[in-house]
Every structure is written in structure tokens, then in C-alpha cells.
Amino acid sequence: MTTAPELTQANKSHTKSLRASLSSKPQRLGDGIFAILLVVPGLALMAVVVAYPLVSALVTAFFKQSLVLPGREFVGLQNIIDVLQGNFFQLLQQTLVFTLGTTIAPFVIGFALALALNTQIRGTKIMRGLMLIPWLVPGVVVSFLWMWIFNANYGVMNAILEPFGIEPQAWLAQPGTAMFAVIVAKTWQSFPWMMVMLLAGLQTVPRELHEAAEMDGAGTIRRFFSITVPQLSGIIGLVVLLEFIWNFQHFDIIYVLTGGGPAGTTETFATSVYETAFHGFDLGRAGALGLLWLVLLMALVVVYVRFSEKGEKR
Amino acid sequence: MTSTALPPAPSSPETMPAAPAKVSRPRRRAASALRSERPSVRLSAWIAVIVCGGFALLPVYWLLATSLTPRDQVFSYPPKLIPTEITLDAYTSLFANPQLFTYLQNSIIVSVVTAVLSVFVSAYMGYSFSKFRYRGRRQLMYFVLASQMFPQALLLVTLYSVFSAYGLLNTYTALVLSFTTFTLPLCVWMLKGFFDTIPDELIEAARVDGASRLRTIHSIVLPLAAPGLVAAGLFAFVRGWNDFIFALTLAGPDKQTLPPGLVNTYVGEAATAWPELMAASLVVSLPVAIAFMLLQRYLVSGMTAGAVKG
Description:
By secondary structure, chain A is mainly α.
């Protein structure tokens, strides 16, 4: 079976965690084999559609290879050097601007809404449901909608801003505003998820803590920083980290809204790898860019996995 | 503020995607904030709801309004914030376009097959992760978790070549297989969460009564976890329905799903048919909205099981 090497690999590298994996669960003779058999179909599928493509994409980083022509030629680190000397740092900077913008803005909006909806003001249930709409609609619909709102000639954004003395802009077609517009669109899609997660967290904060603090004379703001934030620190860390990881590789909205333009100013790793491979047909360069991208991403994923493991042990 | 460092998170079971099912039930009212809010707190809550609510809902209103506006009135500036004339032309013109029905049919087939396949495979995997302890289990679980974070654009580089080599480009098979890259991890973690809530004693009892291991799964565990299977399947369906990048690249017009299909149909023309595009957007979003209405209880568990994202 294709998965056998992987299993042994996983086993070998972690024999020291043997103790951790022997638990108090009732086990019968042969259960181990049965348990692994259950995993085999899924693992085989993942080996075919995830592990193999990933490894093989990274291998192309060291070859000169075209999407449309057969054959390839080993070029060592040349692709990686080319990428680093090319627009890598511009892409890194733009990806970080996009990722930070689309993580911080939804967090602020989502947290504000979660706090507001956690009070006893009327209509919170209905509002909570309505606020989910932006998160429900498919990514391309988010793009269509904001493409229309930011339309240079007939867009409603220009019409709203004009009374405030802001000249009509071609939001998506000029380098200064395109990234901002893309971040707004992604923020609109992301904040409901933040809101739901943080609201779920807020509802686990014991009410007694707030009551006791209020008895001791702590004001609303004081209680927010001394009770709410520390109690939520775990969930805050989780949602910010996950959102950051997702946005670091986001593709749909950028691709449909601007296609990376104008003049490459909204290009991120995701759109650039895609363009290089499927419009430039340069698999080697796409692989090299992907390799560098994945290294950065995996650093984040390792942090996330550590974080989840800690949660599970508790 | 100084104490916001990450580690101490005493009362947040949400940090563990492993046991999401517990979180899904909304807590009792009593657990929320104080009953008698100060006026200033109430006021700021209202301001937050109105400002953020405007940001959330005005675009939705604009989508709806544009879809009901006659085509010639859309191309005027300044736009009419409240349409003076309402028409369903945009919706009827959708039905007149046979290509859209092809996309719709493809979307339904691919998303349904993806959901069924994902649930089927993940059920066994999730059960194994939940009820057995063996060496390498943790590592496998976190491989599955991390795999949904591998960038799709990068996977595509090779998936395209592989499918091309096997003549699978522009087939449902290619789309279904590529969709499982993100639905499988989601379903495995969600279902593991559901199986965790099934008491071990029940499984033991079945075994004592002489049921085989497989029989125990099929006649005891899966029926008990049926709501979980449905929820995971719906989440997988939605993720497949919303996919853009895989269907855009791996399929042509006759096998493409709605999201890339709509982009190809409407975007890039000199004058985009905005009312039709907004109407189509609304129609595409409907199945997702319905799925989530059914899913409300499992919303948070699905969200934490990872990456329920557009």
C-alpha cells in the first residue's frame, strides 16, 4: 500500500513519544492493525492528492520545466536565485500587507460585534444571524459584489464618498487604492467568522468573575482588560493565527477583483505562483516561489499545531 | 493588557479542534455579561452593531437592489440608492442561458459526490483517531490538520500535470479528487469530534455481545453519529460548492462549476451585465445559505474543525 512508508516514517521519528500514545483506552489484540486499516483509504487518498503533488511541486523548483512542453532539465538552485533576485521581496511585502490588513481589520470588527452582541441589548439573535451573510456567500460572489461597489464609473462607493469631498476613484485600477479595496472585500468576508468564534469564547467567561470585579469597583474598561481579554487569550490567539494562515495563501478574491494588478501591486504569493505556472507556463519558477512560500507558511503551521496540541492536552 | 500572552487559556475548550461538538451548543443566557448594563455600555454596543452591521449588510442590500434594477438604469451616475423601477428581467435572463444550467448541474454533481466520498472515507479515519491509540496516531492527525493549510495554488501545479498525464483534465473525477484536498481534513476532524462524544462503554458492550469490529462501527457508531455525518457532509458540500481555483484550472466550460463559470461568463466584458451578475450571485449563494440554516447547531464545530472558509 502506498501509505506504508509514511506510517513507518511517522513511527520511527517519534518512538520517544511512545509513552504518550499508550493510553488507558481498552485495547484488544489486533486492534492496532484494525485501527490502521481504517485509516488506509483516507491516507491513500491524501497521499495521491496532497502529499505527492506537494512534494513533486517542490521538486520542480530545481528543474527548468514547462507546463506545456515535455521533459525537464536540472538547474540546481538557479530558479530559487532567480526568484530571490526577482520580485520575491516585493511579493513578500504585498502578501504581508494583505495578510495583516485582512487579519487585523476583521479581528477588530469581529471582536467589537462579539462584545456588543454579548450584552443584553435587544435583537442580538437576529443580528447575529444576519451578520453571518457575508461569510456564507462564495468567494467569487464577494468579488463580484465589491467589483461593482468599487466600479470606477458607476460604483456606489464613489457616490457615497463624493459628498465628503473625495473625488471619484478607479479603486481597482490604480496602484494606490487597489490593495485597500481588496483588503476591504476580504475583511467583509472574514469578520463574521471572527465574530462567531469570539462570541462563543465570550460566553464561556464565568459571569461570577465580572460580578465579583464589579463588586470590587472595577469599571467596564478595567474588567475588559483584566477579565475578558485574559480569559479569551487562548481563543484570540487561535482565531488570529488561523486567519493569518488562511489569508497568507488567499487566492479567490484577489484573483477575481484585480488579477494581481494594477502593475502587480496586489500580487501575492498565491496569485503569483498561479500566474507563473498557468499563464507563464514556467513550472520551475512557480515551484521555486512555492518552495519559499511554503517555508514561511510551515513556520506558521508549526506554531498552530503546537498551539492546538496544547489545547488538547488540557 | 500585559497579561494577553497566549498560553494561559483556562476556560476555552475552543482552542482544541479535537472536541468541537461540545462547543456548538450555545451556553445558557446566564453565562453572558451582566444583566444590568450601564447606559454607556448599551450605547457603545448599539453604535458597534449599527456601524459594523452597516458594513455587513449594506453591500448585501446593494446586491439585491442591483439585481432588481433595469439594465439601462444601472449605467448611470450617481447610482440610484433606492431603485425607482423594479424588474425581474435579470433573473429571467439567467434562465434563458443554457450554459448556466450546465454549470449548475456540474456544481451539484461535483459537490454532492465530493461530500459523500469525503464523509465515507473520513468516517473510518475519524473513528480510528477517536477510539484507538497507536503509535503515530498523533502525527497522522496533525498531518491531516496541516494538510489543509498547504496552498492550493501550489498543489495545483502538480495536480494539473498528474491529471493531464492520466487524461483526467476536464472530468468530474479531477474536480472531486482535487476537492477532497480540503474537504477530507475538515470531515476527519469534525467526525473525530463527534465520535469522541460516543461513550467507549457502548462500543465495549457491542463487542462483548459478539459484534465484529466493523459491525460495531456500522450498526452502533455510525447511526449514533448520524447528525455528525450529515453536518460534516453539508460542510463538505458547501466547501466544494464555493471552490474557485480548482474548477477554474482543471475543467473547461462543459465540466466547470458555477463560481469559475460565472467569472468566465460575466467578468472581463467591456460592460459587465451587472444586474444579471448580481442575480446570479444571489442564486449561487442560496444553497449555501440553506445548508447553513440546517447547520446552525454545528456552526462552531465546523468552523473549528478547520478552514470552513470561502
